[in-house]
Hints:
Number of helices: 11
Low-confidence stretches: 347-351
Distance between the termini: 48 Å
Strand order of the largest sheet: 1-2-3-5-4
Largest sheet: 5 strands, mixed
Radius of gyration: 40 Å
Number of domains: 3
Amino acid sequence: MSRAGQLLSRHGLDLLVVVTAVVTAVATVVRDDLVHPDGPRFVLGLVGITSAVLVLLARRRFPFAAPATTWLLCSALSFMDAQLVVNGAGILIAGMGAAVLLGAQRSVALSRLGLAIVLLGSVVVVSNGPSSTSDDLISVPAMFAIGWLVGWALRERTERTEAAEERAQRAEREREAAARVAVAEERSRIARELHDVVAHAVSVMVLQVGAVRHRMPDSSAADREALRNVEESGRNALAEMRRLLNAMRDEGDEAELAPHPGLADLDRLVHDVTAAGMAVDLRVVGEPAPLPAGLDLSAYRIVQEGLTNSLKHSGAGRTEVTVAYESDALRLEVRDHGSTNGSRLDGHGRGHGLVGIRERVKVFGGEMSAGPAPGGGFLVRARLPRHREPA
Length: 391
């Protein structure tokens, strides 16, 4: 039934045009007036009046020419056989449909030209009719003008609908573009921070290798040379990383000289958020254990983004933060007791804070969820593997 409904919706008007053409042809064949022509003129009239209806099948490809042709053919046929055009209801339906189509033209100029064709054509047909009266010269064109007005109204409605759809599509494209930009910005920020962490580690390695090389006796020349090569490779790698970091920084950004924060700095973060007007309950589960610098930094940023999201959008007076040290993972939760509006699921404003959390979790092959919390509020969860290499 669904497929049949789709076919009827798509081709229903075409079917109506074909049925109207058949009805018109049959009415022309069985007409019993005494003045109808016969022979070639009858065949020509039959083909002409049927074609005047069937030409509407081409309305999609020729939206103006097809309905205009219907009226022009009817006008021309009325000179050959005045009774032919006014003989049946089929051609009346086709003429009214053509008038509606002409009124619905996208171009205002073509639509007005279509009105002129409808009015002039109806006057010609009525004038050539053998039994037409002076009243018909007013009522018949007025009737088809009403059909044209219906098409004009449909045209305006279609334009409004298409404009609304275009605005919705443009807004969707802008949202998608903004999301892509937000992801790129967050990945760039994460990359800068992690490159800083790696650069610091490489610096320590180079210094330690240099110290060991200088303490080695002269008798170990081969080993000293190997360490010199390691030290030189480390320094080259460090220089390349610094060059990459400088390229990744936005114009005007200063190099970060202060050490990056970690979970040990959560007390200070909680103090800052509390000073901003939202109480924070920090709960640590399990025995705190040393974490890799990159993981420690990302865990801090995840909690920071979660608190910022709550502070800006929840309207809550209190937020709960849980940091759980599990045997193989670090689990983080930020839950507030405020509103759960849908916009928070897409990130907050331009910052797209939840995007940042998602990207940081992805770096370490973890899991993340964000949404309404049981019992009300909003809950952000993240689980970061502690001993698993990222994919």
